[in-house]
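Researcher: Here's a chain I'd like modeled. Treat it as a single chain, no partners, no ligands.
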Amino acid sequence: MAYASLATGVLLAAGFGSRFDPEGLHNKLLARMPDGTPVAHEAAHRLLRVVTRVLAVVRPGSDALARLLNDAGCDVVFAADAERGMGASLAAGIEASDDSEGWIVALADMPRIATATIEAVAHSLDGGASLVAPFYQGQRGHPVGFGIEHRDALLRLDGDTGARALLMSQRVTRLDVDDPGILRDVDTPDDLLRI
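Model: Modeled as a single isolated chain. Structure tokens:
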């Protein structure tokens, strides 16, 4: 670990991935990338290179995914209200890390975010920024850093918009990065070949 952030990592892994598998038989986060690594394991591994504690938020019944993320080094949190959307899952992760001074929120279906980008978000957050996001070619991506002053707003999140409204209403410390991985997620089987 090159840099150990004071923040807690929150890895959101509670989605249903219906575009990846409309029948719901295969969890995209367990799918293997061309090198054989499961998508969620790689996303967790990169976050764990920067933060010492990562809470992986999964939905109830995702036992195989929970085991994979636990084996990767994450503490697993089951979000009872995960079906309500990303906001409810993020709130569950914040609630489970109530003692944290800040959070770096990443998505488990984004396994190609550069470790240097995660470090840059962590440095900025640890340096006093209250809301931090990386941008690539003008587009905001992940992971996003949240300071302690946003705790109550994060706990109130619900539905499928996540923290988008918070990011739109507050001043965000913008980090321009040369990292297309902040925008690339795995939504379809073809995406596994492109990441």
